[in-house]
From TrEMBL:
<feature type="active site" description="Proton donor">
    <location>
        <position position="53"/>
    </location>
</feature>
<feature type="site" description="Lowers pKa of active site Tyr">
    <location>
        <position position="78"/>
    </location>
</feature>
<dbReference type="InterPro" id="IPR036812">
    <property type="entry name" value="NAD(P)_OxRdtase_dom_sf"/>
</dbReference>
<dbReference type="InterPro" id="IPR023210">
    <property type="entry name" value="NADP_OxRdtase_dom"/>
</dbReference>
<dbReference type="GO" id="GO:0016616">
    <property type="term" value="F:oxidoreductase activity, acting on the CH-OH group of donors, NAD or NADP as acceptor"/>
</dbReference>
<keyword id="KW-0521">NADP</keyword>
<dbReference type="InterPro" id="IPR020471">
    <property type="entry name" value="AKR"/>
</dbReference>
<feature type="domain" description="NADP-dependent oxidoreductase">
    <location>
        <begin position="19"/>
        <end position="269"/>
    </location>
</feature>
<dbReference type="InterPro" id="IPR018170">
    <property type="entry name" value="Aldo/ket_reductase_CS"/>
</dbReference>
<comment type="similarity">
    <text>Belongs to the aldo/keto reductase family.</text>
</comment>
<protein>
    <submittedName>
        <fullName>Aldo/keto reductase</fullName>
    </submittedName>
</protein>
<feature type="binding site">
    <location>
        <position position="111"/>
    </location>
    <ligand>
        <name>substrate</name>
    </ligand>
</feature>
<dbReference type="Pfam" id="PF00248">
    <property type="entry name" value="Aldo_ket_red"/>
</dbReference>
<keyword id="KW-0560">Oxidoreductase</keyword>
Length: 283
């Protein structure tokens, strides 16, 4: 891994850049457009949005204005929880394409496996929703399809009932939240793992003298150490900032390597505040 434009190859042959620019909580139109433009200027080629973020329109504007041809970018969006079900998923994915003003998405994900309002039959709900993604994949509107926040039982359900296997699982991963079972199962099912909110533990690590020593040794910030940790685990890493300097800093992680001892230490960290599943969910 030498640069932020390096890629992994998904199970269907599509290439996905290892570092993605995230857009969660970027609701201000100008910040959303400028964020994408600045990220692409800094070399990011992978942009992650979602119907839930309510910024697809502005992310789409950023893509138009960034000066890099569409085919050189990798753009992901995700299905909102209230858009599950075959017909609704199909319709609203078309609407995402319209808002983004794109002919196709490089990757589209079911954002969350369980829709609380639907209550009962999450299994059938996910099967029906997945079928919509499969059909749009066949039609060429989605170049790759996948899942997000799917844990082992949800993954098993899709595997047992799908026609086309999911290519990605996007989940929360960082020191303190390792989700080993989900990572293992996703990889067994031939999926690439994407890591969201990699910087969540940052403020809990500031007082940690061992982490401070790592920052001095590598000449990097805590944010850069966390992003590097994620890459070295083989995760496609998604990170967000609306500040140009941080967008640049977060991409400057390809010129150092954490030792195995440092990786093991970061793996061993626990943060009670970050371990309650419902606290960190977007929905
Ligand atoms: N599938 C899902 O359910 C799911 C859930 C959450 C996120 N995601 C995706 O994953 C992406 C990444 O997650 P995230 O948004 O939580 O991103 P993150 O990169 O883990 O954290 C972003 C936060 O850290 C700050 N920050 C960024 N770079 C920094 C730096 N170098 N130094 C200090 N602070 C820094 C940002 O503030 P400023 O913007 O003010 O710089 C922002 O508050 C999301 O944007 C979204 O696309 C997916």
């Amino acid at each position: 891994m030498a640069s932020l434009q390096d890629t992994y190859t998904l199970s269907n042959g599509v290439k996905i850049p290892v570092l993605g620019y995230g857009t969660w909580q970027v609701t201000d139109p100008q910040e959303a457009v400028e964020g994408v433009v600045n990220a692409v200027k800094e070399g990011y080629r992978h942009i992650d949005t979602a119907q839930m973020y309510k910024n697809e329109e502005y992310v789409g504007k950023g893509i138009k204005e960034c000066g890099v041809p569409r085919e050189e970018l990798f753009v992901t969006s995700k299905l909102n929880n209230n858009n599950h079900g075959y017909d609704r998923a199909r319709k609203t994915i078309e609407e995402s394409l319209e808002r983004l003003d794109l002919d196709y998405l490089d990757l589209f994900l079911i954002h969350w496996p369980v829709v609380k309002e639907n209550g009962g039959d999450w299994k059938q709900d996910n099967i029906d929703t997945w079928r919509a993604l499969e059909d749009l994949y066949d039609e060429g509107k989605l170049k790759a399809i996948g899942l997000s926040n799917f844990a082992v039982p949800h993954l098993e359900n899709i595997e047992e009932n799908c026609r086309i296997k999911p290519m990605v699982n996007q989940i929360r991963l960082h020191p303190g939240v390792l989700q080993e079972d989900t990572v293992e199962m996703s990889r067994k099912q031939n999926m690439v793992i994407e890591a969201w909110s990699p910087l969540s533990p940052m403020k809990y690590m500031e007082e940690n003298t061992k982490v401070q020593a790592m920052c001095s040794e590598y000449g990097k910030s805590i944010a850069q150490i966390l992003l590097r940790w994620s890459l070295q685990h083989g995760f496609v890493t998604l990170t967000k900032s609306v500040h140009e300097e941080r967008i640049r800093q977060n991409a400057d992680i390809f010129d150092f390597e954490l030792s195995q001892g440092d990786m093991d230490y970061l793996d061993s960290l626990k943060f009670d505040e970050l371990s309650k599943p419902d606290d960190f969910q977007e929905r």
